[in-house]
Amino acid sequence: MGEKARIGIVTVSDRASRGEYEDLGGPAIREWLERALTSPWEAVARLVPDEQAQVETALRELSDDEGCGLVVTTGGTGPAPRDITPEATEAVCDKLLDGFGEQMRAVSLKIVPTAILSRQIAGIRGRSLIINLPGKPSAIADCLDGVFPAVPYCIDLIEGPYLETDESVIKAFRPKHAKKSG
Fold this sequence. Notes:
This protein is an alpha/beta fold.
């Protein structure tokens, strides 16, 4: 096995950043990843308010300075005036990957009609894949279940760490030529 992959987990919440509300989204992402990934990894967590400049700074630091091949955000993806996570993500990304947002909304719409209000996106910054998730823990799991089969191969394509999954939890798709033999 190679070195540990670093995965950024960013909770975007005014109330949680002020200590008025327990961060549930960040721990929900970590728990999902702990179940799903079999390759060694470590979390690099950030908790920031709904301020675009601070979200952009956190995303840049995790991608550029901390070397996270995957950065996952939670919160700030709705239509409310303070919801700015997609704008911050778009501002720091070199390329957007529209299919992630489309798939997350498609999965969520099967559960709740208000999923159409969700604006989460995903994109590439250097060798990092950044994915916005909703703030609700059950929605986080639904969205990760929907998009994660494509995540390890996407990270391979941008020369990030090789992530392997527990196929009983989530089966990652890689073309035959992209699979490493054990």
